[in-house]
Structures are given as structure tokens and as C-alpha cells.
UniProtKB/TrEMBL annotation:
This is HalOD1 output domain-containing protein. Residues 2-59 form the Halobacterial output domain. It comes from Halocatena marina. Pfam families: HalOD1. InterPro entries: HalOD1 (IPR040624).
Length: 61
């Protein structure tokens, strides 16, 4: 969420909950499995979020 607030120049409290875009329980299950995925992509607001080991990339639509 910090990366999105930086990219959007919006306070975190002004953004909708991340759970509106991606299911947190599914994320927990996904990363609890072995081996964990090397890449996760999802859309949040007007952004494509890519999470990889060691960094997060944010792209606008």
C-alpha cells in the first residue's frame, strides 16, 4: 500500500481497502504453500501491481 500511496499521491486512508481487489485469505494460502510463487500480479484501482522477491512494481493502466 505504501507504494500505491507514493504513486498516486493519495493518503492511505483515502484509498479503498486492498481486500476489495485481492482476497487476503487466498494470498495467505498461496504463500503458505511450498514453493511460494516467484511473481504475483493483480490490479488495484488504476494500477497493475507486480510483487516479486525483493521488490514491488506499480504500473498505470
Amino acid at each position: 500500500m505504501r507504494a500505491v500511496t507514493t504513486a498516486s499521491n493519495q493518503p492511505i486512508l483515502d484509498l479503498p481497502p486492498l481486500a476489495n481487489s485481492i482476497d487476503p485469505d487466498s494470498l495467505d494460502q498461496l504463500f503458505a504453500s511450498s514453493p511460494a510463487p516467484d511473481l504475483l500480479q493483480f490490479r488495484y484501482e488504476a494500477y497493475l501491481i507486480t510483487v516479486e522477491p525483493g521488490h514491488v512494481r506499480i504500473q498505470t493502466d
